[in-house]
């Protein structure tokens, strides 16, 4: 028998009947909760896919370049709760963590970020809990992205539950910078010197300038090809 299986058997034997039942109930409830988060994440992904298709029909181009989803792993949930001194319980986890389910929507142009966010938030069963606009107000290190914490209903066989999802909406240029910066930081394991941080900040400025130029170009192309269109 593998070592961890022996350990598990010993732990089970050491528990009294009541503790064992409690542990089973908690893990069942936990598994159920994670299913809700997974379904909420898939629901949000589908809704952005639909919004993208609708926009293509209307305007002939895709505002969404790609959509990524991720469900926080149990060790990662534990680590974040520990870091924030949140006691480990299901209620505290639901209350204290906003990003168990995460959806990242990568858009073509800066304007698309707002269009997609606003159209999504207009849906009458979506509740906006928190908005962090790191595009209007970038982080000191240069990070840019629009973050929405929302709650969306998930319908399972035994009922409906409003479930939180963190949505990050950003352009390809913003995502390029954030992905590389994240890699360099390697989950907070690496530290930067002042020069390195300054270099990263300047790269963020370059990516913002690129976004502005491409957006300007998009408007010029549109105007040139649609001279009678007022937009
Ligand atoms: P991972 O691996 O992407 O999940 P909150 O929980 O909302 O109260 P938090 O978590 O600090 O507070 O929220 P914030 O600032 O909105 O950041 C949440 C997520 O945004 C991060 O999740 C990153 O995905 C992304 N993010 C924020 N700041 C930066 C940054 O400076 N660089 C990069 N590359 N990404 C950033 P996690 O949990 O850190 O990581």
Structure, described:
The protein is an alpha+beta fold. It is built from seven helices and five strands. It has a five-stranded mixed β-sheet with strand order 1-2-5-4-3. A hairpin with a 2-residue loop joins β4 and β5. The longest helix is centred in the N-terminal third of the chain and has 43 residues. Bound molecules: ligand 0O2. Ligand 0O2 binds next to α6.
Describe the structure in brief.
Helices cover 56% and strands 20% of the residues. It is α+β, with helices and mostly antiparallel strands.
Largest sheet: 5 strands, mixed
Spatial sequence of strands, sheet with the most strands = 1-2-5-4-3
Q: What is the overall shape?
A: flat
* Distance linking N and C termini: 70 Å
Please report the total strand number as a whole number.
5
**Order of helix and strand elements from N to C terminus:** HHEHHEHEEEHH
Q: Which ligands accompany this protein?
A: ligand 0O2
Oligomer: single chain
- Report the total helices: 7
Low-confidence stretches: none
- Binned strand content: 15-25%
By secondary-structure content and strand pairing, the structural class works out as alpha+beta
**Approximate helicity band:** 55-70%
| Mean pLDDT, all residues | 89
Q: What is the C-alpha radius of gyration, as a whole number of Å?
A: 22 Å
Please name the defining characteristics of this protein.
231 residues; alpha+beta; 5-stranded mixed β-sheet; 20% strand; binds ligand 0O2
Strand and helix layout:
Blueprint: H1 3-14, H2 17-59, E1 64-71, H3 74-83, H4 90-96, E2 101-107, H5 110-121, E3 127-133, E4 146-156, E5 159-171, H6 172-185, H7 194-225
Helix pairs in contact: 6-7
């Amino acid at each position: 028998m593998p070592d961890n299986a022996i350990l598990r058997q010993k732990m089970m034997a050491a528990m009294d009947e009541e503790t064992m039942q409690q542990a089973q109930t908690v893990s069942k409830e936990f598994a159920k909760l994670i299913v809700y988060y997974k379904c909420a994440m898939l629901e949000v992904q589908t809704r952005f896919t639909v919004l993208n298709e609708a926009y293509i029909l209307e305007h002939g181009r895709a505002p969404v370049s790609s959509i990524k989803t991720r469900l926080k792993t149990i060790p990662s949930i534990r680590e974040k709760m520990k870091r924030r001194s949140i006691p480990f319980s299901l209620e505290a986890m639901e209350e204290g963590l906003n990003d168990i389910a995460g959806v990242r929507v990568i858009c073509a142009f800066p304007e698309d970020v707002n269009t997609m966010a606003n159209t999504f938030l207009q849906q009458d069963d979506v509740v906006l809990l928190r908005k962090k606009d790191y595009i209007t107000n970038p982080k000191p290190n240069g990070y840019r992205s629009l973050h929405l914490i929302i709650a969306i209903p998930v319908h399972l066989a035994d009922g409906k539950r409003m479930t939180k999802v963190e949505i990050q909406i950003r352009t390809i240029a913003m995502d390029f910078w954030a992905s590389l910066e994240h890699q360099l930081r390697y989950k907070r394991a690496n530290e930067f010197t002042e020069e390195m941080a300054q270099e990263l900040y300047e790269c963020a400025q370059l990516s913002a300038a690129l976004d502005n130029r491409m957006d300007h170009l998009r408007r010029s192309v549109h105007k040139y090809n649609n001279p009678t269109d007022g937009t």
